[in-house]
């Protein structure tokens, strides 16, 4: 069972690396110009392969878009509450990053957890799970499978159900990465999950400057 878990994590990491490599190759061909910031994560500024916004209900049913977080750096994190390793690790790292940023800068950062498992991740469960890592974190839940599929297509996020021993014990393979928007609502970074708090602090500071 442990071996299968590691295999799933490895597959998600490989998918993230492959996407990152493809995007990096695209960006390398954008030509010369103003020297970009030295981000730790992959800079996808100006890349048109992804959606520029989202519209999803939070745990109270209120529809959220980027406009709700104007003036903040927004981290759009895809995961699910039953994730055994990568998701809780990254959420904990993001919480540590906000602590290291200090209270004033932390107020200007919004982490949004988008579930790829709305079948099990009810609004009630998300409302308990997400803020447990940090009170400021917000859970978003696609209203149905069609909305999830469209969102995944728009952001090029992979997800797939992996059957377990019982109908309710399945896991979800998914892209192990997040997307980061700057304070103007522009998509800037593709950030691999499980990288530790330091790269988050470094890149968020650059986006807040």
Task: Explain what the structure shows.
InterPro entries: SCO1/SenC, Thioredoxin-like_sf, Thioredoxin_domain. GO terms for molecular function: metal ion binding. Keywords: Copper, Disulfide bond, Metal-binding, Signal. Pfam families: SCO1-SenC. By secondary structure, this protein is of the alpha+beta class. The chain has a single domain, classed as Glutaredoxin (3-Layer(aba) Sandwich), CATH 3.40.30. Helix content is 38%, strand content 20%. The protein contains six helices and ten strands. The protein has helices at 2-28, 86-101, 103-106, 123-133, 145-154, 197-208; strands at 42-43, 56-57, 63-64, 73-79, 109-115, 138-140, 159-162, 171-174, 177-181, 187-192. A six-stranded mixed beta sheet has the order 1-10-9-4-5-6, with helices on both faces. A hairpin with a 5-residue loop joins strand 2 (56-57) and strand 3 (63-64). Helix 2 crosses helix 6 (197-208). The radius of gyration is 17 Å and the shape is globular. The model is unreliable at 1-7 and 25-31 (pLDDT under 50).
């Amino acid at each position: 069972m442990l071996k299968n878990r590691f295999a799933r994590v490895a597959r998600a990491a490989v998918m993230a690396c492959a996407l990152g490599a493809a995007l990096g190759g695209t960006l390398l061909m954008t030509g010369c110009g103003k020297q970009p910031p030295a981000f730790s994560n992959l800079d996808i500024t100006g890349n048109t392969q992804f959606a520029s916004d989202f519209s999803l209900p939070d745990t109270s049913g209120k529809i959220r878009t980027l406009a709700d977080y104007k003036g903040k750096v927004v981290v759009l994190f895809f995961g699910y509450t039953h994730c055994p390793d990568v998701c809780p690790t990254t959420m904990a790292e993001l919480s540590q990053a906000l602590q290291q940023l200090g209270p004033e800068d932390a107020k200007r950062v919004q982490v949004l957890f988008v579930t790829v498992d709305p079948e099990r991740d009810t609004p009630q469960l998300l409302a308990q799970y997400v803020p447990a890592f940090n009170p400021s974190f917000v859970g978003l839940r696609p209203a149905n499978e069609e909305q999830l599929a469209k969102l995944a297509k728009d952001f090029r996020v992979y997800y797939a159900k992996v059957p377990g021993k019982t109908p309710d014990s399945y896991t979800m393979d998914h892209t192990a990465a997040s997307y980061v928007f700057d304070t103007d609502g522009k998509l800037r970074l593709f950030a691999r999950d499980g990288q530790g708090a330091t790269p988050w602090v470094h890149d968020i500071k650059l986006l807040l400057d």
